[in-house]
Amino acid sequence: MAKELRLVLVLTVICVVSAAVLGLVNALTAPAIKAQNEMAQQKALQEALPAASQFRAETSFQAEESTGVVGVYRGYQGSQLEGLVFIVEQRGYADVIRLAVGVTKDGNLAGLTVISQAETPGLGAKITGEKFRAQKAFRDATNQDQLAVTKDKGQVEAITSATVSSRAVVRGVNAALAISRSLLAGEAQIGGAAK
Questions:
Q1: Residue 195 above 80 pLDDT?
Q2: What pLDDT score was predicted for residue 193?
Q3: Which residues, 6+ apart, have CB-to-CB distance to 112 below 8 Å?
Q4: Domain map of the chain by residue range?
């Protein structure tokens, strides 16, 4: 009995020490991880809307679970509104795909960046590649368009063997374009006063 109690006590001490060490490491690395995530987000915003140099979160926007749009940023060059950047989350094949979708003040798709994804390497992960993101269908898209992959009678060339991932990106772009239509129309009505 004493031997069993000693074994339980030793294992408990090991667990407590391990938990304390993990907690300490987490506390030490949390600020660096947060800073890296913020830098990645800023880089994605800049890539999605290259004409802008400053970004401000749209605080009045309510995230819409049905569309996957979880955030909106206004992009400015000086005090001039250049467009909007939407942070969109869409379910891909393996996991959620997080995108930054830029739309110019004129309603044109300015850029598309994959912030994070966990799709199959060599297949769905190709959504991060320039070849997929720089397709003519994306380059020419406006907020009046409804994009679709070619299998769905659209213009976007899906990645071979990764149609689910490609459709997720297209759904995200469509959601951003649709919401930009109403936000930019409201902006035109009030003369761009919202900053």
A1: no
A2: 47
A3: 48, 99, 100, 101, 102, 133, 138, 169, 173
A4: 47-189
